[in-house]
């Protein structure tokens, strides 16, 4: 029972952050309008991008290191954190993209996000998912409540609110983990970057496939369209992510059982795919058209559902490749998907705008699924 509770808390905590971000965007657009809220989205996109780069694959690298040398866990944590901190000056590049005041708050947000994300390995190792969930809920309450408190939108004010929210959840999680009470020892070394590089490349390949579209929309289309697209794609990516959350309780079994048993697990996931996608797509359409009032035709939501569906059919194929230490294959497929996606987006965005980007992502997802299936059959 305790194991089930831990798995459940991990699933809820993992789903909470994107769900909270989605709700904030929905009500932010509803209260302040697409154009104003899109200016905040524009800044946060670059904050998240820089934070991702500074992460340098630390999560998977450290979790593996913790399991190999549990007695040296905090030495590994502090060494990795301080070594990666040498990359923080690169956040100053944000001064080139935004006005000075906005850039300063964006740089502070990078530092805070960097620090908060660094604690994720300790959360996983100590199974403190409930503590992180509480921190996420409090931070969400600060930002969500502020949407209704302020009568007019001011970009700098909301960046300050995000800085406050991240500071609060950083403090709450730090208190729960008590990591500063451990004996301190650290070695700043280039080895941390070498060890994290394979995980960084693996994460980057996945990031390029899943995130590049919204950055192209930010660059090419109007700011109001950026807000519309983020609402749509975030909703359908959450629906897509359900495939991963369903498989979390069975991850360890994939590494232990025979191929025949894994195949039975696949069939069960396939059976859940269509009802979840249909019901989820209908719910997204209802919220977007009757609450947010985006005014999109049904074709947008059909394509969105088709974006979410393939992940249910290849998630376990990725786990099988990881089981067999074929991470390079995942990287190659992901980079191929990225080049297909970016090419289709540039080809379709001028004529079809948001629908063209959705269509590009949809085609890429189905192509990636086919490649995984072909590789599973003949690789």
TrEMBL record:
Q: Which keywords describe this protein according to UniProt?
A: Membrane, Transmembrane, Transmembrane helix
Top-level taxon of origin: Bacteria
Q: Where are the transmembrane segments?
A: 12-31, 37-56, 77-98, 104-126, 133-150, 162-180, 192-209, 229-248, 269-288, 300-318, 330-349, 355-375
Q: Does the keyword Transcription regulation apply?
A: no
What protein name applies here?
A: Oligosaccharide flippase family protein
Species this chain originates from: Kordia aestuariivivens
């Amino acid at each position: 029972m305790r194991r089930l509770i831990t798995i459940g808390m991990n699933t809820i905590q993992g789903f909470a952050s994107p769900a909270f971000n989605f709700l904030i965007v929905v009500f932010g657009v509803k209260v302040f309008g697409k154009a104003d809220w899109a200016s905040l989205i524009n800044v946060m996109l670059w904050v998240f991008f820089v934070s991702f780069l500074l992460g340098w694959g630390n999560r998977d690298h450290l979790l593996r290191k913790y399991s190999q040398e549990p007695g040296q866990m905090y030495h590994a944590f502090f060494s990795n954190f301080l070594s990666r901190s040498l990359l923080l000056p690169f956040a100053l590049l944000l001064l080139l993209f935004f006005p000075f005041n906005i850039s300063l708050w964006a740089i502070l947000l990078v530092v805070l996000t960097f620090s908060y994300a660094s604690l994720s390995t300790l959360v996983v190792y100590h199974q403190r998912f409930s503590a992180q969930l509480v921190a996420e809920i409090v931070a969400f309450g600060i930002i969500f409540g502020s949407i209704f408190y302020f009568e007019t939108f001011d970009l700098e004010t909301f960046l300050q609110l995000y800085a406050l929210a991240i500071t609060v959840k950083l403090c709450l999680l730090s208190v729960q983990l008590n990591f500063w009470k451990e004996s301190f020892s650290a070695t700043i070394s280039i080895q941390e970057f070498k060890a994290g590089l394979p995980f960084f490349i693996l994460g980057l390949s996945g990031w390029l496939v899943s995130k590049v579209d919204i950055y192209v929309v930010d660059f090419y289309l109007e700011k109001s369209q950026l807000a519309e697209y983020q609402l749509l794609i975030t909703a359908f990516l959450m629906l897509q992510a359900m495939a991963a959350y369903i498989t979390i309780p069975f991850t360890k079994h994939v590494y232990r059982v025979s191929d025949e048993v894994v195949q039975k697990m696949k069939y069960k996931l396939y059976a859940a795919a269509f009802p979840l996608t249909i019901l989820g797509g209908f719910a997204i359409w209802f919220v977007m058209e009757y609450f947010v009032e985006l005014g999109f035709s049904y074709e947008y939501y059909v394509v969105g559902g088709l974006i979410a569906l393939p992940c249910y059919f290849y998630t376990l194929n990725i786990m099988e490749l990881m089981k067999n230490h074929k991470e390079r294959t995942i990287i190659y497929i992901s980079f191929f998907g990225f080049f297909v996606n970016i090419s289709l987006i540039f080809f379709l965005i001028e004529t079809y705008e948001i629908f063209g980007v959705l269509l590009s992502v949809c085609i890429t997802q189905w192509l990636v699924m086919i490649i995984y299936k072909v590789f599973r059959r003949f690789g």
